[in-house]
Amino acid sequence: MELLKQMLETLSVSGNEENLADLIEKEIAPYVDEIRRDVMGNLIAFKKGAGEAPKKMMLSAHMDEIGMIITHAEEDGYLRFANVGGLRIPFLVGQPVIFKNGVRGNVMYETKIDFSKLKLENLYIDIGAETAEEALSMVSIGDVCAPYGTLFELGEHRVCGKSMDDKVACYIQIEAIKKLKNTVYDTYFVFSTQEELGLRGAHTAAYAINPDYGVALDVTGVGDMHNMVSPNALKLGKGAAVKVRDSSIICSRLMVNFLKKVAKEKGIPYQMEVLMAGGTDAGAIHTTREGVITGGISIPTRNIHSPVEVADKRDIAACIDLMVELLGTPFEG
What we know:
The chain has helices at residues 2-8, 18-28, 89-92, 132-138, 164-179, 200-209, 253-266, 282-285, 313-327; strands spanning 34-37, 43-47, 56-62, 67-73, 79-84, 96-99, 104-109, 123-126, 144-147, 152-154, 158-161, 186-192, 213-221, 240-246, 249-250, 270-274, 293-302, 309-312. By secondary structure, it is an alpha+beta fold. The chain folds into 2 domains: 2-65 and 162-327, Zn peptidases (Aminopeptidase), CATH 3.40.630; 67-147, Elongation Factor Tu (Ef-tu), domain 3, CATH 2.40.30. Strands 1, 2, 3, 10, 11, 12, 13, 14, 15, 16, 17 and 18 form a 12-stranded mixed sheet that branches. The longest helix has 16 residues, at 164-179.
């Protein structure tokens, strides 16, 4: 999974996805008919469908990751920051971070504050500067950073790393493109931007494409963790997750049934996803123009929005297979 490792190591905080888009474009260019980028920075790859006047299918996985944006430097050289997306304070404290220009640092907190009462304004980044002037010679106000890390194996079947949300879905989309021979749809593979800030890239991409059908690929929380606030039925290693709902969508029953049918007929392991918190690009796609028949294929993942997100290689393989078989099967509503 060397490609996934490279993707995780490529910083792509919301609004700064261009380096990851460059990497993805190089990987998929030989396998698609057209590639373009829009004003939002979405990378959109097109593959012509077989037959006369094929329907349009939009698949979307977001390139952006959560991170931090520098607001100011203090006299002693420490940097203060604001969130870009859904940061969780316990996961930040003590974390190494990296900026787009390669500057490294770490996040620490004001130790006089009760740890249980920490707020974002009690955290700061140390990049080794002794003065504000030195700090601002290394990074600038408005620069972004994210936790520093890479991909590593976790047991026999699992992989762990930062920003699996949603780079593992981008990886699945890339591998499906490489594996796909023919599609019955005019297929638009969207690698979207700024999902973590409100599904922004998918809104504009879906409006421009005006698809007949849409499927979002994203991670989803699992129920096989201890003392969860919102337990669910998903488990690592049990297959691709067919989305029923999340905070942004109640999926089209037609698409849910179609995905289940394809998985059953092709012998692809799957499980059903009812996500009570969190949204995906599906939420943007399904309300585009007059509405789009939309669903989701999700990757069961532990520790979402942390530097140690965990996915199962068997689930990743199942998601790739389901995506390829979906594109080879005419939609039945």
